[in-house]
Write a structure and sequence with these properties.
This protein is an all-beta fold. It has a single domain, classed as Jelly Rolls, CATH 2.60.120.10. Helices cover 0% and strands 42% of the residues. Strand 1 and strand 2 form a beta hairpin. It is globular and about 40 Å long. It starts with 15 loop residues before the first strand and ends with a strand.
């Protein structure tokens, strides 16, 4: 069961750097279940390039909303901006990503389709 979170400014959740080969990625966890379901704010610092992570493919569904900034999918050569949404089924390829000015997005992951 998810914990209740009433309307809260996302900046009140602790910002934590994400370990890995890419510098500039951080997250604010809103909810995380033992089975992997997740709601978080994902933040790309200005200049972040996730090329070391390569193209991403997940075994979960992913829903995203860009709160501010923009990010470019280097494989597609497309830039996605504030206010845009994405819904990715398991197995959908995406990335790697690059941002010049930074990007903040809301992400939900869940394993049941």
């Amino acid at each position: 069961m998810k914990d209740a979170v009433e309307f809260t400014d996302f900046r009140e959740f602790k910002l934590v750097a994400i370990d890995g080969p890419v510098e500039g990625l951080s997250e604010r966890i809103i909810f995380k279940s033992p089975d992997g379901d997740l709601a978080r704010i994902l933040e790309f610092a200005p200049g972040t390039d996730t090329s070391p992570n390569g193209v991403q493919v997940h075994d979960y569904r992913e829903e995203l909303f860009i709160i501010e900034g923009s990010v470019t999918d280097l494989t597609l050569g497309e830039t996605f901006t504030e206010g845009m949404v994405a819904s990715r089924p398991p197995g959908m390829k995406h990335g790697p990503w690059k941002t010049e000015s930074g990007c903040v997005m809301y992400e939900i992951r869940y394993f049941k389709n």
